[in-house]
Structures are given as structure tokens and as C-alpha cells.
Design goal:
heterodimer; A: mainly beta; Porin; 1 helix; 5% helix; disordered N terminus; B: 4 strands
Chain lengths: 266, 98
């Protein structure tokens, strides 16, 4: 039973890294950005979450490649450090985004992207969650010289972990607005301030087909964030604070989640 | 007098072409909302043979491309480079760099 609890806890702690963020996409939500054709993006990210006494820190290295101007592929290698459970290199993730619609105007771009992320069970010694998961999503973005708006929905298919534990699948919804107070010229530092509303609805986990009472539920977060960019370098940061929580049974509610990301386009 | 004027105009045009240090293309590009995203255009264009410099006026949606003497680009070539960067080229003007 301890093992089951550990898997469920690991799963819940790692949920926050389920997005693939790219500069000028939201910090926690999913945005529609893809890389230019032949472009390479290197990305170093740090995530921290705390839920009651459970604390996890994850750093990750990501590399993305622009297959076309509308299609990007990405590989991510995370390193997890937890206060409960094993630490080390966690499950590798591969992801792809395809921009299927775009409307360009003077100083304005609207676009929509389909997104798929697969997390195979690659880590050993319990450093991953012991299952293969995948996320399917769709994102819309409106980006102008001053205002930003994003919306996305994702569905996370959680695979069966060790001990016949099926973690509940999850819906993720994000609504984001952003503003650039002072339009900047090329090669000038650029600041965009954001506010995200992130919703997560998780189905009950099951053990041998029986629903576990202390699993699943809904959480909503309000997340202020910031993007700072200079030519081909970006820093993004943000914090998620729970504003509404309806978790089933007895579960640790999230206290906060934080992200810091560095990104270079080569 | 008319013949003299015509000769002056022709010689001016000739000298402009002869001493031109290259060509400048002013591209009207839509979708340029942020400087970070525009980097893709800079990268794509500067990797292209003959391109000497790329500058941006984001407010006007302008990409200013300077190319070496003797090198030329067609509108279709530039349009494809901009499309591969994730943006839309609407129009183009071309002038010699003196």
C-alpha cells in the first residue's frame, strides 16, 4: 500500500511538468508556438511544487527542432529531487506540436496548434512514476504588439503503474492573458506580464479495478508569470497558487508550484 | 538641351547600377508581434548565401534585408524563407544600395 501511495504521490507531484512551454507561450499552460524551420531550441527548466509535506524539485533539459515552420519536435530529460521517494533522472519525454492554423496581420499573429506528448516508462528504481503516459492537447493564441491571449485544453492518459494501480486520467484547461506595457524594438529587452487560470480535473485512481476514495478531484490555480526576452534568449518564470480545490477523500492540497526557465534559440 | 538632360539621367542611372554596393529588399511581413519570434527570420535569412544584414522595424512590420553586390532574390524565394520562419510576407520593394 505504501508503494501505491508513493506512485500516486509521484504522479500528482509530476503533473505540473506536463506542459511543453516555449517562449512566448504561457508559463504553465500550453501555447501555440512552433520553431522556425531548421531552428534549434535549448531549454533548461526548474520546477518546484509543495503539497503539505510533499516537496519536489525537478530540473530538466530540453532540446527542440523545427521540422517545418509549423511543426516542432522536442525531447526532454528531467532530473527529479524529492524529499519523499527516490531522486535522479526521471522518465524521458518526447513531444510534438503542429500548427494547423495561422492568421497573420500587421503586428499580430493568431494561431492554433495540436500537441502530443509521450512519457514512456524509461526511468529505473522508482525515479519515474512506473507507467507510460501521454498527453493530447490543442492550443489557441492571439499575440499582438501589446496584448496576448491564450487558451488550451489537454487530456492526459495515465498508464497503469506497478501493483495494478491505474492512476486517473486528467483534464487540463488554461486561460491566459498577457500584456507588454512598452512595445520594444528588435534587439531590445522585451517584457511580457501574464496571468493564468489553470484548471485540473483528475479522475479517481483504481486498484485492481476498484476506485480509490482518496484520489482524483479538481484544483484551480491563479498563476502570475513573466517572460523576459532579448533577441534569441528568454527567461520565463511564474508561480501557481491554488484558488479552488475539491479533492476527493483525504489528499494533500497543493500549496504552490513554481517554474523558472531559460531558453535559447539557435 | 533635352539631349543633354537625357544623357545626364542615363549616366546617373548607369553609375547607380555600376557603383551599387548591393541590393536592399524591404519586406512587409505580417505576424511580427514580438522581437523574440522575429529572431527566426534573422536566422533563416543570415544563413542564406549573399545576405549581409537583416534589420527589423516591428511597428511597421518591415524586414530590411541587405544583400551582396551581384546577388539577387526573387519575391518567391523571400516569401518561402519568411514562411519557413513562421510568418507571412505581403509585399516587397527592391532598391540598390549606393
Amino acid at each position: 500500500m505504501n508503494r501505491i501511495r508513493l506512485h500516486l504521490m509521484t504522479a500528482s507531484l509530476l503533473i505540473f511538468v506536463s506542459g511543453v512551454t516555449s517562449a512566448h507561450d504561457p508559463v504553465f499552460g500550453l501555447g501555440p508556438h512552433t520553431l522556425f524551420k531548421g531552428g534549434i531550441e535549448t531549454h533548461i527548466g526548474f520546477d518546484q511544487s509543495k503539497a503539505n509535506t510533499n516537496k519536489a524539485m525537478e530540473s530538466s533539459l530540453e532540446v527542440a527542432y523545427g521540422i517545418t515552420g509549423n511543426w516542432t519536435a522536442r525531447v526532454e530529460i528531467p532530473y527529479v529531487d524529492r524529499n519523499i521517494g527516490p531522486s535522479g533522472i526521471s522518465d524521458m519525454r518526447i513531444a510534438t506540436k503542429y500548427r494547423f492554423w495561422r492568421r497573420d496581420d500587421l503586428g499580430l499573429q493568431e494561431s492554433s496548434t495540436a500537441f502530443l506528448k509521450i512519457k514512456p516508462d524509461t526511468a529505473s528504481n522508482g525515479r519515474g512514476n512506473g507507467a507510460s503516459d501521454s498527453i493530447l492537447g490543442i492550443a489557441y493564441g492571439y499575440e499582438s504588439r501589446k496584448w496576448y491571449r491564450w487558451a488550451s485544453v489537454r487530456y492526459r492518459f495515465n498508464g497503469e503503474a506497478l501493483g495494478n494501480v491505474s492512476r486517473g486520467d486528467q483534464y487540463l484547461v488554461d486561460l491566459v492573458t498577457g500584456i507588454r506595457f512598452k512595445p520594444s524594438a528588435y534587439k531590445e529587452a522585451d517584457w511580457v506580464w501574464m496571468l493564468e487560470l489553470n484548471g485540473e480535473k483528475t479522475k479517481n485512481s483504481q486498484l485492481n479495478g476498484v476506485a480509490l476514495a482518496n484520489s482524483g478531484g479538481t484544483e484551480w490555480f491563479l498563476s502570475p508569470g513573466l517572460m523576459w526576452t532579448l533577441r534569441n534568449f528568454a527567461i520565463k518564470t511564474g508561480m501557481q497558487f491554488p484558488v479552488a480545490s475539491n479533492l476527493n477523500g483525504i489528499q494533500a492540497e497543493s500549496d504552490y508550484r513554481a517554474k523558472l526557465e531559460f531558453e535559447w534559440h539557435l | 538641351m533635352k539631349k543633354v538632360m537625357l544623357l545626364i539621367v542615363i549616366s546617373l542611372l548607369w553609375s547607380t547600377t555600376l557603383f551599387a554596393a548591393g541590393t536592399q529588399y524591404d519586406l512587409r511581413v505580417d505576424g511580427l508581434a514580438c522581437p523574440f519570434c522575429a529572431y527566426g527570420i534573422e536566422k533563416k535569412l543570415t544563413k542564406t548565401d549573399g545576405v549581409e544584414s537583416v534589420a527589423f522595424d516591428l511597428e511597421k512590420g518591415l524586414v530590411i534585408v541587405k544583400v551582396k553586390e551581384g546577388m539577387t532574390f526573387s519575391e518567391a524565394q523571400l516569401k518561402l524563407l519568411i514562411e519557413d520562419s513562421g510568418f507571412t510576407m505581403r509585399s516587397m520593394t527592391e532598391k540598390p544600395i549606393i
